[in-house]
Amino acid sequence: MLGWFSNDLAIDLGTANTVVYAKGKGIVVSEPSVVAVVRDARGIDRVRAVGKEAKEMLGRTPSNIVAIRPMKDGVIADFEVTEAMLRYFIARAHDRKRLVRPRIVIAVPSGITEVEKRAVREAAVSAGAREVYLIDEPMAAAIGAGLPVTEPSGNMIIDIGGGTTEVAVISLSGIVYANSVRVGGDKMDEAIINYVKRKYNLLVGERSAELIKIKIGNAFPSDEIETMEIKGRDLVAGVPKTLEIKSDEVREALSEPVNTVVETVKMALERTPPELAADIVDKGIVMVGGGSLLRNLDVLLREVTGLPVMLAEDPLTAVAIGTGRTLDELHLLKEIAIKS
Fold it and tell me: How many domains does the chain fold into?
């Protein structure tokens, strides 16, 4: 009886963005995983802003406000803040007066430890969940990208998120091979910050670095060279200044994190059983996640592996949509949920 009234939710709790999918409604929340808290004299934290609003505050806060990204490398780094963030997102997605607590499915990275899994479970329960199911992120991504995961054939998925990159081969609604490396969008931003610092003695913030990556970042040489103005603090003179940076330089800066992703993909292909490898030659590799939007990354992977590489239709929300689809097919959810 309860099941009829409850609003089931699927959550992709990401390092960079949190996406919430409500059963029967589709995606209801898609915001950055950032929380701004106010610390008063007694050291008690009060949540000031969550999501987009809090992201605007990153690196721009006075001493009593802290903008925190509670997820690091795909797992919970700050438990209380994550719980507050989840509570906020659940309240936004769950419009009914809290009579029934929602059933929640959360996608977690495949390389996550037992302790980290328990942290996710407990955070969701204390944020108001009735039941919590965890499913592997690559699995959710594959379902969201529309791959036939239940069939006995190999599907290869690459999920490049903010904190982690997951490469997995899926067959018969199970994971045959999965590898998770802690390299993603954040590491790319860091690489840009360090490169600009080394080459130009200019210090840029995380948000500026992310903007550079989105606007002119690329993984494979293209014909046209784009430029962009970057603003930061000159480390020698100590004053703010503006520079122009070329897309080639950004590619050079990103080469290390991008190569890590490529190596992870190559390793996955080496470890895939031959029959499934044959399927992957036919079907190719599907990429999801915000990091897969880096320009020409698919071209680079195509060059390296010689296999067809496709981007999913909506890479940013694929994991949340896939997690949401399991809400409609409970037998599939029971099959792929991580047993506690």
Answer: 3
Q: Under a CB-based contact definition with an 8 Å cutoff, are residues 286 and 310 in contact?
A: yes
| CA 161 to each of CA 9, 62, 151, 220: distance values in angstroms, whole numbers, following the listed order | 21, 30, 26, 19
pLDDT band at 100 (very low <50, low <70, confident <90, very high): confident
pTM, 2 dp: 0.88
* pLDDT tens profile 79-93: 888 888 988 888 888
- Give which of 334, 327, 329, 336 is closest to 7, Cα–Cα: 327
Q: Can you give the residue range of the structural domain that contains 155?
A: 147-311
Amino acid identity, position 157 = I
Q: Provide the angle, in degrees to the nearest 10, between the axes of the packed helices 297-305 and 247-270.
A: 40
Looking at the structure, do residues 93 and 230 belong to the same domain, yes or no? no
Same domain, 95 and 200: no
In order of 117, 179, 207, 285, the CA distances from 111 in angstroms are: 10, 7, 27, 20
